[in-house]
Design a protein that fits this description.
Layout: H1 3-27, H2 30-47, H3 54-79, H4 82-103
Helix pairs in contact: 1-2, 1-4, 2-3, 3-4
Length: 105
């Protein structure tokens, strides 16, 4: 895996966890904390060597991020506030595009 992909991926995972912590501490949202922790743990598993075949791990990471995209879009439509769900939705789209665009080059 290229250094660029690693940096983008791990930055996204860290931002996902930070977002869950901010949601928990600012609004007391346990569901935000649990969702971000579970999604981050699953994403981490997709990158650990020996857990999945590399191609399957990448596909699984794409599916997890696509599901997160749906969750963020649903929350944005429900709250009508761009921060944090809209921002995470845009970030998720960007990470998916960057990781998949770079892989094809």
């Amino acid at each position: 895996m290229m250094q660029f992909e690693n940096t983008v991926f791990w930055s996204y995972v860290i931002l996902l966890l930070i977002g869950g912590l901010i949601g928990f501490f600012s609004a007391g949202s346990k569901i935000s904390l649990m969702t971000s922790a579970v999604a981050a743990a699953l994403l981490i598993l997709t990158r650990l060597s020996g857990v999945f075949q590399p191609a399957f791990g990448r596909a699984m990471a794409n599916v997890i991020m696509a599901l997160l995209l749906v969750v963020f879009a649903w929350r944005l439509s429900k709250t009508k506030k761009f921060i944090p769900s809209g921002m995470m939705m845009v970030l998720t789209v960007a990470v998916l595009a960057l990781l998949n665009f770079r892989r094809n080059w």
